[in-house]
Amino acid sequence: MTEEKGSGNPSVDYGEIVQRPRARVSWAWLFPVLAAGAAIWMFWSHWKSSGPEIEILFHSAPGIQAGKSLLYYRGVEAGKVTRVRLDAGLDKVVVSIRLKAYASDLAREGTEFWVDQPEVSLDQISGLDAIIQGNSIQARIGTGAAATRFTGSDRPPLTPLEAPSLVLQLHAMNIPFVDRGSPVYFRGVAVGEVESKGLDPQGIPVLRVVVEKEFAKAVRTNSRFWVVPATSLQVGPNVLKFDVAGLDAIVRGGIAFDTFEPPGDDVASGSQFELAANEMTARSYSPPIRVSFDDGRGLISGQTQVTYLGMPVGFVEEARPDSSTGAVEAIIRLQPHYDGLRNAGTIFTLVRPRISLEGVSGLETIVGGVYIACSPGSEGERKDNFVGRAVSDEEWDRAQSEGEGLEITLYAREIRILDKGAPVFYRGVPVGRIKEKAFDEKGSPFLRVVVRKEFSQFVRKNSRFWRMPATSIQAGPGVMKVAVEGVEALLQGGVAFDDSGSPGENVATGSRFELFNDEKSARSTSLPIRISFNNGQGLLAGQTQLRYLGIPVGLVEEIRPSAGRIEVIARLEPGFEILRRRGSKFLLVRPQISLEGVSGLETLVSGVYIDCKPSSGGELAQRFVGTTREEIAMPRDPLGIVVAAPNSKIGLGAPVYYRGLRVGKVIRKKLSADGRSVDLFTAIDRQYAALVRENTKFWDVSGVKASLGLLGIKIETGTVESLALGGLAFATPEKSQMGGIVKSGHRFELSAEPRKEWLLWAPSIPLRDN
Amino acid sequence: MTNFRDLRWQTSAALVVAGLILYVPANILPVMTMTVTGDVEPLTILGGVQELYDSGLWPVAGIVFIASIVVPFFKLACLSWLLLMHGSPALRRERTVMRRIVHTIGSWSMIDVFLLAILTAVGQLGILASVRAEAGGLFFVAVLLCTLFASEVYESRMIWHEQDPSAA
């Protein structure tokens, strides 16, 4: 521009144009330098800020992306994933990470890497940030030497910030409930967590437990660990206690530990401890005691408690059958300060729930499980092996005395209801027990009975055994008695025995006795009698009674058909030998309802019975013929006459009237020999026999007689009885015509109606005094 | 080289050289970081183009590719050619046309930067999404500025300058 001005006005001297020496190099070259500087600084600072590259092997690396995913350490970005690939075997993911320079210390052995991903489980929600930020890799620094290759863990460690200072290993044969994350309590304070649960090389479950640094001193070399179940329920007679260890523990269970002795030394990380199944177990660590039981039902290794005076003092560590002795051997551990129970006199009793008719015991064990009660002996040296009992003390004593007791055998044709275990009574006192019910070689059933030693003297040669019914009902007119022989016998029945007569000699084991069906038949010492009936309806063996004048005097023992009749074998009680005389009468009494009356009504309740009537004399007999219905009440020593009727509706038992008074009855009825008439065999009371003379006239008074006359209708009826059965009436003429006294068997004709004069006859005849 | 005496030429050449240098980090370094629902995504220019193309927006991808990669490179290449041909009598007409083209499209090459500026301003949605400008953008802007000024400084008439013997 200066040039232009100069050349435009040459006349004016504007001065000389001096060409300034031109800068040879433009200042603009500073730009490339600056640009290069910036670029170099950029790359250098990038290089400077990145540390070493490490490789981590993961089983899986979900959501990890090269160039994007970050490595965090204590929540701060510590590196970036540069590459994700699979290893040659396709079974690992190799994640390469470029660490930040300030985080390059992470590249050392022991550093743990894990993929942080959202986790929602029953007990926790973690990695929520990963939902938003995407999955990342987290690190917890280790302490080893520098390294660049790592194996990532599949799960985040429990203490993600620092490695725990105290890690313990707990061994147990069985570790239920507890799992990773379960809290560890020391006197109720959560001091750590279970880090992992696994198996050691021997296959024994092992828990790795992390105890926080500040509580590390709580763990002592003699601390004892136990599992705290999620919840515990305690039920006792008046205790119902529901324990929840903590909200955390509800879900995951927990572990507790304590030191029960003077505390020992500090422990180092990696120490091994035993894990007890529960607190009781943990507390009981005195040397084991072996107790053998015949039957180990309900014993649970590690759980069954040992109590002393109802207080738990130990537990069964192990229960196992010992094949050599055939017993169950329980290894018991007691709490150290109850070690005094370990003396020779101690009795260990396995208590189970028992509901028997003798009572209910051990009910608490239904809820709490069986336990072993021990009662210490007063003295005795220390002992490690015991023989335990599985029954209560009483039963034990009884079993002991039964073991040495008297064994006898009872035979019967049939043994109902009674079974093993049913009691044996002597005068109401249980003295033994049925040990066995079986058949002998001949096929007849027998009971083997054991009478306890102290009672064996009561069994004599002449003892009689009978089956005790569960209940007995005695019923009679005005009497109804229900006897129950004790609750136990109610269900099982039982066997009772007593002496018959004066006590005999004692018997030896193995003696045989007959088992009677009931007490009556047992007490009946006499020989049985046999009565035959043509109909045995209502007879029951062992129940139907024989009665004499209404009093039971014997019992039907057996009923069997014999030659078309029913033969009843009955036993009479002693003192009623009179009934065994020949000529005694046996009547089967059944309820009878007739027009003459109602009889035997009591049998509706008590069942039929056999009424006995002794005969006045005669030798003893064994066989009798019984009648099944009451014979027509026979007038005593009657006059038997025959009244022949052309036809007759007169029934048996029909009354015979004289002047309206009943003096006899029809006892038999049959067609006459020539068939022309019906012969009514009529018995006239001996007292009135004199009234019947040769010329006596008989007429029929059966039914209703109606005669129609001019004056009206006349209706005559006899008694109700004669209305149904019919009846006879007779009259005897005056003195001169009456004729002689008739003999038995005299025949008379029956007129249909009386003549008028017959009714007027009124002879005076002296009657024989009765 | 007499050309070195020409300060304008030198200035222009220096700017082109600086632009070429800056072109490298501008394309290597991410221009922005997009964080969408925790997904942290650092994007270089080429990466952004790829992203757009992958999501099916290939016309947009083409525009961005042309505007952000082809055009700056084209400008740098053209300017380098013009500067190297400086003083040569050959192809003067064509060189003039080319310089005009470079000058004209220069005003459009900032489109990417505007886009970046808008994105970083708008894309602040807390933890859900955020867009952050990165160093690469700065380099990119620097490249653009260098080419702009370079084409401004190297005027068309300089193409027609005869070799000045006195200057030598």
Question: Summary?
Answer:
The complex is a heterodimer of chains A (770) and B (168). Chain A contains twelve helices and 54 strands. Chain A has 770 residues and is mainly beta.
- State the distance separating the first and last CA atoms of chain B: 9 Å
For the largest interface, the chains and their residue counts are: A-B, 26 and 29 residues
**What proportion of the residues of chain A form beta strands (DSSP E)?**
35-45%
- Cross-sheet strand order for the largest sheet of chain A: 5-8-2-3-4-1-9
Q: Report the oligomer.
A: heterodimer
Helix-residue proportion of chain A: 10-25%
Describe the structure in your own words.
The complex is a heterodimer of chains A (770) and B (168). Chain A is mainly beta and 770 residues long. Chain A is 11% helix and 41% strand. In chain A, the strands form 12 sheets. A 7-stranded mixed β-sheet of chain A has the order 5-8-2-3-4-1-9. Chain A has a 7-stranded mixed beta barrel with strand order 10-13-12-11-17-14-18. Chain A has a 7-stranded mixed β-sheet with strand order 23-26-20-21-22-19-27. Chain A starts with a helix and ends in a 10-residue tail after the last helix. The longest helix of chain B is centred in the middle third of the chain and has 27 residues. Chain B has one domain: Up-down Bundle (Butyryl-CoA Dehydrogenase, subunit A, domain 3), CATH 1.20.140. In chain B, helix 4 packs across helix 6. The interface between A and B is medium-sized, with 26 and 29 residues.
